[in-house]
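Please, structure for the following, as tokens.
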Amino acid sequence: MLRMTGIGKSFPGARVLSGVDLEVAAGEVHALIGENGAGKSTLMKILAGVHTPDEGTIEIDGRALAFGHPLDAQRAGVSIIYQELTLLPERTVAENVFLGREPVRRGLVDRETMERTTAELLASLGEDSFGPRDLLRRLSVAQQQVVEIVKALSVDARIVVMDEPTAALAEHEVELLYRLVRRLRERGIAVLYISHRLREIFDLADRVTVLKDGAKVATEPIDRITTADLVRLMVGRELTDYYPPRAQRPPGDVLLAVHGGGNDRLDGIDLELRAGEIVGLAGLQGAGRTELVKALFGAEPFTRGEMTPRRPRSVRDGIAAGIGLVTEDRKSEGLALHQSVRDNALLVARARKGRAGGAVIDLLERVRLAPPRPEQEVRHLSGGNQQKVVLAKWLTVAPRVLLFDEPTRGVDVGAKAAIHELVRELADGGMAVLMVSSELPELIGMSDRIVVLRDGRIAGHLPAGATEEAVMELAAGS
């Protein structure tokens, strides 16, 4: 169905794509993987008509096409679902599906047609948990992904590009997306699937193409390649182990303790974090994981219970108590995107001390920012490097306790390994670490012990090396 041949693209001062070939058949799920900066997003934006290639051709069903605008690509049957959803929260599902191309009857928007067509498309996907009249803001992220897919089907898309579709989904919501992708395949739609989660590639894809430094290095059937092969092709070296070895010594003193902690989302929280220990925090979406780390930090404080050091009533209190928080959403909560790397790295130090603290270059080298350019705007960095800047921001004030909320979300396998090593180094240096992750293999691989939340309460504790089944049994209450 789709053939891209010899695609090349340059931006001022950088060659982004060089001679990339890609073929996708009707009814195929074709995975596209590579490190951040490998050229995946640029290639897909060329397919979607956002960028024009400097050289190369695009053919759909044997016809050479040139897209000067995203509408051209849409008319040719190409639809792209971005990682950051492009939906309007205050409009209904049907209004979002037909946004910008509302059917009109007698000079008025034909809501009946919009809602009937949307209902038919939802039914074709087997989705009955919400309807065309529901407001988008009342839907979960997984349900909003369904709306994006329905939107693509409503324009008769024959090629659907999905960019990190599970990045914001909890573990139990991923199966819903799997089901939808398989339904698209059954309908003969070509799916281009971009993900950093290798397990998803093996679960869903028929073939996989690997990009590195703007060039294609391989296309292989999924049953003829291994995880180790993919990692080697992506990063150009062997990653002998995804996770650094755990500490061989017992943890040190208690650096943070909560007894009976609670607020309007949490209740009866009893938790201790010790020096030199990584504690994993597991739970289903809505279990209270983010709420717990924000309460410990003082962003959404506990209103009852005891805490040592004293219970923070604000973010300023949390920072003063030696607690840091690497937030789940680095772009909206962790960084000032239009400021430099240097200014971002010093955000907390300046707020706490009123002046710059630490040697920025040394910090950036410590977090393995490559290359460490202090004056570069953060918005131009890859997701992995942005996350390293967030980490550097906290290292300027040397917190005793560091809370990580989804520290490797949306970063590639090489950057993940670097972040894992940094987290372990911080723990080995005497810091207490609490880490939230929706990726159970990551949580199990990194944690010295695991705390499982359910409905705002601690459902249980598990030792290092616990199985995914054991975690899910506690999280789901089964």
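DSSP finds 18 helices and 21 strands in the chain. The radius of gyration is 23 Å.
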